[in-house]
Amino acid sequence: MTDMNAKVKDMATHTYGTWNWQKAWQAPMLVTDAEGVYFYDGKGKPYFDFSSQLMCSNLGHKNQAIIEAIAKQAEKLPYVAPGFTTEAALEAVEALRSVMPPEFTKLFFSTSGTEANDGALVMTRLSQAPNYKVISRYHSYHGATSAGMAFTGDPRRWPVERVRYTVDGVCFAPDCYCYRCPFAMEYPACNVQCARYLDYMIKEEGNVAAMIVEPIVGTNGRLVPPPEYFPLVRKICDENNVLLIADEVMTGWFRTGKAFAMEHWNVMPDIMTTAKGCTSAYTPLGITASTQKVADFFDDNLFCHGHTYAYHPLALSAVPPAMAEYRKLMDSGLPQEVAEHLENKLYELADNHPCVGDVRGIGHFWGLEIVKNRATKEPFNVKADKISGKPLMTGKIAGQAMQNGLYIAPWYDTLVIAPPLIITKAQVDEALELLSKALEVADQETVSTDVAASRSSAF
Fold it and tell me: 0.85 exceeded by the pTM?
């Protein structure tokens, strides 16, 4: 183990840690194994994977059907240029179309969610020319490439705007953030003003080609919109000849109980991007799906996009077994039963911890917003704290949880509750017991109040 520790330290010296000050990348945890809802460190200690790593390991770890398919493809044909097609691609398309809404008639395969959003930008700006502007939202994350970061509203955009924010014509709209309504109203009295404002914004901006949304905001809070929000957004987009792009990178593949989150509102986007759960993260794959309305333009116009690893057969080989595993899992009823149990248990958890200001989510996709004062909704930290390097209360909670044997991804104001879809009720109870102990770190610094936690999760 001493030799292994030295190797970890040497690795940290010679590699960049993602999204972090490099002084914090001196001793990353060595993970040596993972199975089911657990992963293990170098000493064999198990950790509940309560955020599915980066909200991507939807089917848990070491699924044998997916592993075997990848191994067979590696032996047969690990790579061929994207100008050819492969059996892996044929089978992946067939499997995906059995799950995706039939309106998505054409697909482009890349290797990540942010690259999927790059593809959406290409489709949008070519087919919508001369209109070119894209409306995003302030509480959004759409990836780390120049396009993805330009679309992104969260604070990671700030330090790199001058470096990689090279996509112009992106503007930001208010969020459907009911707990902290940007129009200082409480739903339903607000009349969904966050959506109605979009019509004014589109007309005033001019040249708007598309709006990109996360159906339920992921990294930036698991914000669940009111039931009227997306039907109204769809109507406004149609009236203004604006494409609606749904970024389902986190919310897709049954994470919210349905195959895709937009199905909760019966709203059909013009373009959908997805990744993560499409292979349960066993291989890196991104998908940009378009309706025929978008695809028709490229019959007589150049689709000027592609890269070396597009349609990578090894990446695509994980898709058919993943789709089969999802069908089997959903048919069993386990995710549906556990989702209801998880929701109830999270509300109970909030009742016992004054640091939890809001509980929101659906299915296996939840957020706990951590506050200093429930009555005033005063936060422990704000966006600027994430970029400045100031210690975050959510980081303290997550750190304590790791010591307890629970991995939970923190953001500057929320904790991500997104366990694998294979988790059981008993495992949820055990994990939440560990989280409850970790929340005591914040409770000690929370102003005492009789105000109950908000529950902005109902459709």
Answer: yes
Cα–Cα–Cα angle for 335, 339, 345, nearest 5°? 140
Q: Which residues contact 189 (CB under 8 A, 6 or more apart)?
A: none
Burial (Cβ within 10 Å: 0-12, 13-18, ≥19) of residue 439: buried
The pLDDT of residue 323: 98
Q: Is the dihedral of CA 6, 7, 13, 18 positive or negative?
A: negative
Alpha-carbon gap, residue 421 to 424, rounded angstroms: 9
Residue 35 CB: number of other CB atoms within 10 A? 12
Place of tokens 């066993």: 282
Per-residue model confidence (pLDDT) at position 191: 85
* Cα separation of the two ends of the chain: 50
Three-state SS for 6?
helix
Strand order in the sheet with 38-41: 31-35, 38-41, 46-49, 406-407
- Which two tokens mark 191? 């009349």
Whether the Cβ atoms of residue 202 and residue 133 lie closer than 8 Å to each other? no
Q: How many helices (H) and strands (E) does the chain have?
A: 16, 17
Q: Do 52 and 418 touch, CB atoms closer than 8 A?
A: yes
* CA 96, chain centre distance (Å): 19
CB 429: neighbour CB atoms within 10 A?
A: 12
* CA R_g for the chain: 22
Three-state SS at 451: coil
> What pLDDT score does 111 carry?
97
In sequence order, the β-bridge partners of residue 358 are: 369, 454
CB 109 within 8 A of CB 343: no
3-state secondary structure of 247: strand
Domains of the chain as residue ranges with CATH: 2-62+333-455 (3.90.1150.10), 64-328 (3.40.640.10)
CB 124, CB 245: distance < 8 Å: yes
Can you list the residues of the chain whose pLDDT is less than 70? 1-2, 163-166, 185-189, 456-459
